[in-house]
Amino acid sequence: MPEPIYVNLVRDPVERVISWYYYVRAPWYYVERKQAFPDIALPDPLWLKKDFETCVLRGDRECRYLEGETHEGIGDHRRQSLFFCGHSDACTPFNTVGALQRAKHAVERHYAVVGILEDLNSTLTVLEHYVPRFFKGASQVYWASSEGAANRDMEIEANKLVMCYPEDIDDSFANDCLHFKAYVGPENNTTVIILDKCEQSPEYISKP
């Protein structure tokens, strides 16, 4: 059987980790978990109310992002390379070179397009040209929607709290990325666009 057409969309790694921090503290999240796993104890209210800035500045374990660390308890979705790496045990430790290489290999071998949320215009254009069967007219549909209109003039910025990050955390985020390839169709002379954040300096993450 032919392989399915795989596509995915990733976002700024710092924005992603901040979003995940608050996601696992949402009240509805624990209601659903309690319903699914009745024996799991509810977390301390102080933990639920702790903001991300406090967590980072105090150096709490969950906000230290140590290379090779294995996250216990809830799933470790702090980095997006995990979604491409696979189910091997080598993918579990946080931010390791081996996990990153496996993820990059999977993207190169299996994915037609991996887009970037912060460059949604280019992502939609690439999807329209490279996977037209499913995404023809996607840009027009998105920008005509209420969500697209609301985001039309909105700049997606890295959280200012990133400025407080130690250098090693900046480095780990800079290294925790993939080589994103997107192919634009014949109408653009089959131009190959390489979106490679891995070659950018760690300062990229700290720019507002």
UniProtKB/TrEMBL annotation:
Q: Where in the cell is it found?
A: Golgi apparatus membrane
Which Gene3D superfamilies does this entry report, sorted A to Z? P-loop containing nucleotide triphosphate hydrolases (3.40.50.300)
Which keywords does this Swiss-Prot/TrEMBL entry list?
Glycoprotein, Golgi apparatus, Membrane, Signal-anchor, Transferase, Transmembrane, Transmembrane helix
- The reply on keyword Transmembrane is yes
- SUPFAM superfamilies linked: P-loop containing nucleoside triphosphate hydrolases
Q: Which GO terms describe its molecular function?
A: sulfotransferase activity
One GO term of the cellular component aspect? Golgi membrane
Annotated membrane topology is: Single-pass type II membrane protein
Its primary localisation, in coarse terms, equals Golgi
Q: Is Repressor among this UniProt entry's keywords?
A: no
So which domain of life are we looking at?
A: Eukaryota
Task: Extract the Pfam families matched here.
Answer: Sulfotransfer_2
Family affiliation: Belongs to the sulfotransferase 3 family.
Q: What name appears for this protein in its UniProt entry?
A: Sulfotransferase
Q: Which organism is it from?
A: Timema tahoe
